[in-house]
Design goal:
This protein has 363 residues and is of the alpha+beta class. It contains eight helices and 14 strands. The strands form two sheets. Strands 4, 5, 6, 7, 8, 9, 10, 11, 12, 13 and 14 form an eleven-stranded mixed sheet that branches. Strands 1-3-2 form a three-stranded antiparallel sheet, with no helix packed on it. The longest helix has 14 residues.
Length: 363
């Protein structure tokens, strides 16, 4: 294998060098890459770099021969020495076999095709909209968006099943809570991810959520403006004062769409900012926490009405955002998840009813 030079593509702008190698050379270990960098065999635009160097479009990357000599374990070395003493051929190093996706014990673990197929089918079932740049998913209740302590199945991991022949894996543009259902935006390319992330930060994306809460807020439409800070002990957000450590301004609009005998209300919510747990904390702040919320529901002795499940009744209902190519708008709505549809049926709510939050300000 000879030395080669590759150019950084426009959609790889800002990618870390180690991530670039992981994408283009998945079999190259991180440790071996570090050795190549320390010895100056890998260079960017002729200069020495580190694993965390951020790449720029058009830069040239010098790539030396990357074939690594398979390493024998200590036991293998002992067996080789004994074989040599007996005048026999030494054992061959471990190798990956291609039969039925299996591999020798000493070979690095690989994903089974069946696992990828399962994830790909699940993602296809969740898909509300897709094109070559964007994927909009309808995330079900209880599925985490990213991994964490004790979380083994999540959307980010499932997206590995959609990694393209060019090595690019679809990227999350934003997150919603594990128990929040509904719209999740995914970018198929790095360039689309960068563009959409900037759109979210500029507040050009219109997000609408639906929730079920106890009681009926007064007035029927309003604006909630607070500062929110993390409550580390309770693992949730708390309403803070301006100037408190790590307190961030949070703004949400709400509107009552319908209600049932003044006991329960269907709220439409529009977050202007995007703070952690913002809508859940704001709903509790105005005295109408979201039904089924294990962290923020604080109404004492409130009986769950018959026919309703004790699950978070919060849906990321609609997303309107400029397409990353700038030639059109993406406007997608998610259906009610099963537990919320059941509640809507019990309470007689019509999901096709006009949503007054549409007329709420964008700032």
């Amino acid at each position: 294998m000879a030395v080669e030079t590759r150019r950084v593509d426009p959609d790889e702008e800002g990618m870390r060098l180690d991530r670039w190698f992981k994408t283009h050379f998945p079999d190259l270990s991180f440790g071996h890459l570090q050795k190549l960098l320390r010895s100056g065999q890998v260079r960017v635009d002729g200069g020495r770099v580190k694993t965390n160097t951020r790449l720029e479009s058009g830069q040239s990357i010098r790539i030396p021969p990357l074939e690594e000599k398979p390493q024998l374990s200590a036991a293998d070395h002992m067996e080789a020495a004994e074989a040599k003493a007996r005048g026999e051929a030494p054992p061959r190093p471990p190798r990956i076999t291609a039969e039925d996706g299996e591999h020798d014990v000493a070979a690095p673990a690989v994903k089974r095709a069946s696992s990828d197929d399962k994830d790909a089918r699940a993602l296809q079932d969740m898909t509300l909209y897709e094109d070559r740049d964007v994927l909009v998913l309808n995330k079900p209740f209880g599925l985490a968006v990213q991994g964490g302590s004790g979380t083994y199945r999540h959307v980010d991991g499932m997206l590995e099943a959609l990694r393209g022949t060019d090595g690019q894996k679809p990227r999350l543009v934003h997150r919603i809570d594990k128990d929040t259902s509904g719209i999740l935006l995914v970018a198929r390319t790095r360039l689309a991810a960068s563009t959409l992330a900037k759109t979210f930060r500029s507040r050009a994306a219109r997000k609408i959520y639906w929730a079920l809460v106890p009681g009926v807020p007064r007035p029927a439409q309003g604006r909630i403006s607070t500062y929110l800070a993390k409550d580390e002990a309770a693992e949730k957000m708390r309403v803070a004062r301006h100037g408190d450590d790590e307190a961030s301004h949070a703004i949400s609009y709400y509107a009552v769409v319908d209600h049932a005998a003044q006991k329960l209300a269907w709220l439409s919510l529009k977050p202007v900012t995007g703070r952690t747990h913002q809508l859940r904390a704001h709903a509790a702040h105005i005295g109408h926490p979201i039904v089924g919320d294990p962290k923020y529901f604080n109404v004492e002795n409130w009986p769950l009405p018959g026919g309703l499940q004790n699950r978070l009744h919060l849906l990321a209902r609609r997303l309107v955002i400029p397409h990353p190519r700038g030639d059109r708008l993406i406007d997608v709505s998610a259906p009610l998840p099963p537990h919320m549809q059941q509640s809507w049926n019990v309470l007689g709510f019509d999901a096709s009813q006009y949503d007054p939050i549409v007329d709420a300000p964008e700032s």
